[in-house]
Amino acid sequence: MEKEIKLSEAQITADLYPRKFGLPGMLWTSLLIAICLVGAYAYYLQLRDGLGVTALRDYASWGIYISNFVFFVAISLVGSLITAVLRLSNVHWSTPLTRIAEIIAVSGIVFAAIIIIVDMGRPDRFLYVMIHGRLQSPIIWDVVVISTYLVISLLLLYIPLLPDLKIMLQHKEKNIKWLNKVYHFLGSFWVGSKEQFRLSEKAINILAVTIIPVAFCIHTVTSWLFATTYRPGWDSTNFGAYFISGAFLVGAGAVVVAMYVFRKAYHLEKYITDDHFNKMGKIVVLLALLYLYFNINEYLVPAFKMKKFEVEHLEGLFTGHFAGIFWFAIATSMVLPILILLFKSGRKPLPMFIAGLLVVVGAWCKRFLIVTPTMLHPMLPMTDAPEEFMHYFPTWQESAITLGSLAGALLIVTFFTRILPIIPVQETIAEQHETDKDN
Amino acid sequence: MKEKDNSRRQFLTTGLLATLAIGCTSEDPFTAAVDASVEPSGEKVKLLSVDGEEIEVDRAFLKPVPHMPSVSALEARAGFPGKKFVMVIDLSRCKNLKKCQSACNHMHQVHPGQGWIQIHAMQDAANTAPYWQPSLCMHCDEPPCVKVCPVDATFKRQDGIVAIDSDRCVGCRFCMAACPYSARVFNWEKPLITEVQAAQPYSCETSTPQKIGTVGKCDFCPDMVRKGELPHCVTACPNGVFMFGDMNEDTVTNGPETFRFSELIKDKAGYRLMEDLGTKPNVYYLPPVNRNFPFEEGYNTAAAQKGA
Questions:
Q1: Does residue B88 sit in the same domain as residue B28?
Q2: Same domain as B108, residue B32
Q3: A119 touches B at CB < 8 Å
């Protein structure tokens, strides 16, 4: 444990207070907004002309929208990992990271919901899922658990925010004017009494216990969208655990990337320390090893048997059409991060940032590999269909919408840091007091 | 109550048909029904009467025949009581003519290139014989598609038919992923139908009009059954590949020939596809032995059709 420098309350508040975007911030935000607008225009085209504007066809009827959906659900699981699992195991060092994890979770889950509506052939009938919902369909389970997870995640974001909202309201002149009303609406009842702290502490504990099974459910059910079918590559009893381990990995990778960026952009070296990177690095390497274990189960056990339906699918991945992206995904999401992070020198901020990026990019490719190659290996041969049905390469509209959704999720995180402290101020002050006392 | 409704409908239908038939036998079949206010246009149209006589009628007197009363949505969802539809496909007779496919596509407004019936060139292993296999919806007794549908847009009727309600379908395509037989197609684009066709009310029995953003598949043509006729693929096939019938009556027919279903399956060793999945299909296949056509001929017919 490195020696902590004593920081005054005012200093902490000043350091962690939301700031105006500088030039890089402005450029970054404009870029994201531009990507979102292109995506929105592409979606307008899709609404007008139907899903025919995508490269999806009868065989590959699920493509990058569904991959992206799985990716968003996966990345959102990190909220429960950092806030709940670490909290309940009495780990304190992760406190500054909780809000980063929680906002990633919320924006991930919001865009998971949006992208699934984008994938629907009849988005105008979205409410039918509520009106005519049938409980035996895994889609309905997904709707139920995802909305539950969103509510719990929002609460886990909101309740720890209350003391910080009080601080925000004390510095009204520093804030964007109209937002003061929002802060007031959200947090004016918080006076910071002992009783309020006790209640919020209790509420967070209850939520932390609740969110773990719900988090397991959202990704297990998402895996069941595939595992409840007969298709090669999906017909697996391993899928729930495989998806959850991958989800924790990509979420942790995303938190590492966010940690690095925030630290650089807001000069938070005193709050997100090298020690945080070291510890997060250990978590990521553990999760990568776990995910590697599940991947070995998922690919090598069927490959040992080479059942008729699996042969084409597995050969397509290992040496065939998808081999390039398959080995890229294995290398970037598991092998390279493990190699970097196993060593102490690899768990420094910059190599960690690179490893985190690799994990996230690899994870996105991995979700694509889980969805589409299977669809292109149906159980009856594809002999009586037009040539274009037998391949899948996303159209520009599809790619623009997908990129737009990714940019949208980043935009939520970006705006959040502009209007609220991304590192919990009050909790950092409290921890500082505790270390002071210890000293 | 329901039966009563049915009999009344039948009575009305018969009456309507009878009136039409009687009308067609007289010299000027439309005089009786002619509205005095209609002025003859002077332009004559040639028609064929039910007796096979050629008759001439003034165009002004032609009126569209009112549609037969269609079944209610509830009836279409319930299906025929006491029936259990089954199809037998004789692989020894198929030479990839695709008449079944074109008839089906035409009647169901299927988008060009797609097909509710697909004729696959099958070869199970390198040294086994290749054969043509028409594949369509198996109308499984344990339908994986029905299990996964979130909104009850695809459902199993009491007569065994797995049908689709395109007014309900949200277009999630989970059923397409779940179907091991790849029997389902999707309306990726606006269906190529006239505005008049598109304006018709949707029926789960005709599966038309096709709607953008929804899933379609073989429906076993319950609308034809209701008229006492065979599904379009059965009547379109010149080689009698498809035999359709009712399991409870133990009979299947392709039109000219009728068989005892149980005997046919027994004698010719009929089987179902992917039995190990437990889907319990209602489409049976007769093995491609003692074939009427060599396999290669299927390629010729396919090529000839493409050229045409």
A1: no
A2: no
A3: yes
Let me know: does B205 contact B222? Beta carbons within 8 Å.
yes
What's the total number of domains in chain B?
2
Q: Among all residues of chain B, which has the CA nearest to that of A128?
A: B151
**Does residue B89 contact residue B242 with C-beta atoms inside 8 Å?**
yes
Instruction: Name the closest residue on chain B to residue A379, using Cα atoms.
Output: B180
Single-letter amino acid code for the residue at B73: A
Nearest to B151 among A61, A128, A378 (CB): A128
- Per-residue pLDDT tens digits of chain A, which is 439 residues long: 444 556 788 889 989 999 889 899 999 999 999 999 999 999 999 999 999 999 999 999 999 999 999 999 999 999 888 889 998 998 889 888 999 999 999 999 999 999 999 999 999 999 999 999 999 999 999 999 999 999 999 999 999 999 999 999 999 888 888 999 999 999 989 999 999 999 999 999 999 999 999 999 999 999 999 999 999 999 999 999 999 999 999 999 999 999 999 999 999 999 999 999 999 999 999 999 999 999 999 999 999 999 988 999 999 999 999 999 999 999 999 999 999 999 999 999 999 999 999 999 999 999 999 999 999 999 999 999 999 899 999 999 999 999 999 999 999 999 999 999 999 999 888 888 877 776 6
Among the partner-chain residues B113, B151, B274, the one whose CB lies closest to the CB of A129 is: B151
**CATH number, domain A9-438:** 1.20.1630.10
